[in-house]
Amino acid sequence: MLKTNLGVFAVTAVLILFNFISIYVYNLEYFDETNCVVVLLLFIVFLYNKCYINFKLCLAFVLALLANISLIYYENFVFSLLTNIFKLLFYIVLMWHVIPLQKSVKTTRLDWFSYIFVSLLGCGVIKVLISSIEQNLESGLNMLFYIHGLFLICIMVIAFRYNSTGFKGAKYFALLLVLFAFSDIFSSFGYYLGYDNLSYFERFFYTMGLCFTILYSKKYIQKSVTNYNSAI
Questions:
Q1: What is the pLDDT of residues 203-216, one digit of tens each?
Q2: Least C-beta-crowded within 10 Å: which of 119, 131, 133, 223?
Q3: Is residue 230 part of a domain?
Q4: Which CATH number covers residue 131?
Q5: What is the pLDDT of residues 53-108, one digit of tens each?
Q6: Residues 94, 177: Cα–Cα separation, whole Å
């Protein structure tokens, strides 16, 4: 069952429900620990589907797991720094994976207009977000938040170009990035401004982001295996 997309969705739905029940019953007392359990279980699903075949995608998932483990000790400045570094490395590894796949993509004027629009929109969102929470940020995290946001914008643009390759799984890649972006936004507002109810949205978008990371990895590996067999 876990090898089908429906199976992955079913497991994800159960884990989202598990997260919601934990938040509702215990408020945020075990929020970070529950996150780790959910990410670890999805990592097992990732491994069960043999997605570890691709080193970069496997490394990205490991970084997501490390970020969530560090999140347990986020009140400590060192671990808050590590959490954001792991998140940043997660996006960098995804860029490392997807950039070489776009060598044959030709960029049109409309594409450039779209890239500029997405970049300006992203910069505006980052500015509003950081301006809203910067009074609660510890010294040294501001710059890391800006870098994190800029990398997210870059990979969004790259994901847009990736869709031009004609690979049907590229839409999963774009969707997982959008889901993680929403998760980051709700996480920042929820934690730094004290809006605890946003934790439901954060967990939903993050868990779905991991779900589509698995679905994309499966699709990409299937394509790679097919291309390899064709070459033989």
A1: 999 999 999 999 99
A2: 131
A3: no
A4: 1.20.1070
A5: 999 999 999 999 999 999 888 778 788 888 888 988 999 999 899 988 887 777 77
A6: 10
Full domain range(s) for residue 28: 5-224
Answer whether residue 13 is part of any domain.
yes
User: pLDDT (tens digit, 9 = 90+) per residue, 109-120?
Assistant: 766 777 787 777
Q: Give the Cα separation of 177 and 114 in Å (integer).
A: 17
pLDDT band at 232 (very low <50, low <70, confident <90, very high): very low
Neighbour tally for 208: CB within 10 Å: 21
Query: Count of domains in the chain?
Result: 1
Please identify which residue in the block is written with the tokens 């671990």.
79
Say if residues 8 and 45 touch (Cβ distance below 8 Å). Answer: yes
Alpha carbons within 13 A on the beta-carbon side of 63: 19
Q: Write down the pTM of the prediction.
A: 0.88
Contact 182, 122 (CB under 8 A): no
Listing DSSP states for 110-133 in one string gives HHHHHHHHHHHHHHHHHHHHHHHH
Residues sharing a CB contact under 8 Å with residue 146, sequence separation 6 or more, in sequence order: 126, 130
Q: Evaluate whether 128 touches 68 at the Cβ level (below 8 Å).
A: no
Residue 4 reports pLDDT greater than 50? yes
Token digits of residue 158: 């790259």
The answer to whether residue 232 is domain-embedded is no
Contacts of 223 (CB under 8 A, 6+ apart): 167, 169
